[in-house]
């Protein structure tokens, strides 16, 4: 029986224990200093305070001071912490990387270095490990449409395991496969690591449409559909520009994850608050008070900065990203800019000029034209 140490008793970390137990893994769940309340709840035989789902049976729990005991004999470390805590956790785990065969990563987000450089998570982990004199084993980035509570309750769940070594992705996708939990293996790590955090940004925009609908009583289905389409377009553009694949963006890790997060994720509910007119700081504070971390809030400015640093020419094609970033920063009321960001813009002059040569003389957008009725008379005369 293979052993796995799940690092972080988060909603996702706890949920992952269910398919692992059901596929015969020996599971240790280690909680950080911030997880004491969750472990206390489990010790009392109660469900997770956020998901209200029970911990899978036979999972061994360990407190923050018991890291060595939790990891001992493990084949895999599954890191399930918030992106803001990933650098510290990576440093803490560095002495153990040479003991395990692989690292799994359910964390979603970006990391900003002290120099202001924005890194994908696997990039950041590799740099941190090297600075600690350690070498990372193969890292599997896990993404896709997974609501933690449903996974923890054994509801049908599809996810994606991405690794530069496709063999590792295939191996572990098989090793955790159940009737209800299936992982699709891929080697498109860049695609997964870009799309997983981006969908949180765009889920905020989807939530805004529902908040506006609640506040005004006017249906916003058309606007929501336009937001969804624009969000997927922008996610695809960034994914490909960062070295990912288009098919990843239109699969589970892109459109699938955006759909589920836009329906019932925490970022969607944060967006609903903005759509009802709440200030972003107040909205986030209230959600934190209720025990809900909104990953899209810190991720949004980092996503914008990532684009500015690596693919700045793409920025003008990402109006929705820019709108959400300005709203999260408190610079604009997103209700005043969402429509222009989501609905199609008039074609840019460069686009018109690029395709003008393929248009008939009647519709050619450049140059002067006679009124169409007069031009029709001339055409008839010319045909005679």
TrEMBL record:
Pfam family example for this protein?
NAD_Gly3P_dh_N
Q: Name one GO biological process term.
A: glycerol-3-phosphate catabolic process
Q: What is this protein called?
A: Glycerol-3-phosphate dehydrogenase
Where on the tree of life does the source sit, at the highest rank? Answer: Bacteria
A GO molecular function annotation here is: glycerol-3-phosphate dehydrogenase (NADP+) activity
- Catalytic site: 199 (proton acceptor)
Keywords tagged on the record = Lipid biosynthesis, Lipid metabolism, NAD, Oxidoreductase, Phospholipid biosynthesis, Phospholipid metabolism
Native species of this protein?
Mobiluncus mulieris ATCC 35239
Any one annotated GO CC term: cytosol
This protein's record includes keyword Ribosomal protein: no
- Tell me its family: Belongs to the NAD-dependent glycerol-3-phosphate dehydrogenase family.
- Write out the residues that bind NAD(+): 148, 266
Q: Where does substrate bind?
A: 108, 266-267
Q: Where is the Glycerol-3-phosphate dehydrogenase NAD-dependent N-terminal domain?
A: 3-166
- Catalysed reaction equations from the record: sn-glycerol 3-phosphate + NADP(+) = dihydroxyacetone phosphate + NADPH + H(+)
Glycerol-3-phosphate dehydrogenase NAD-dependent C-terminal domain residues are 188-337
InterPro entries to which the protein is assigned, alphabetical:
6-PGluconate_DH-like_C_sf, 6PGD_dom2, G3P_DH_NAD-dep, G3P_DH_NAD-dep_C, G3P_DH_NAD-dep_N, NAD(P)-bd_dom_sf
Q: What is its EC number?
A: 1.1.1.94
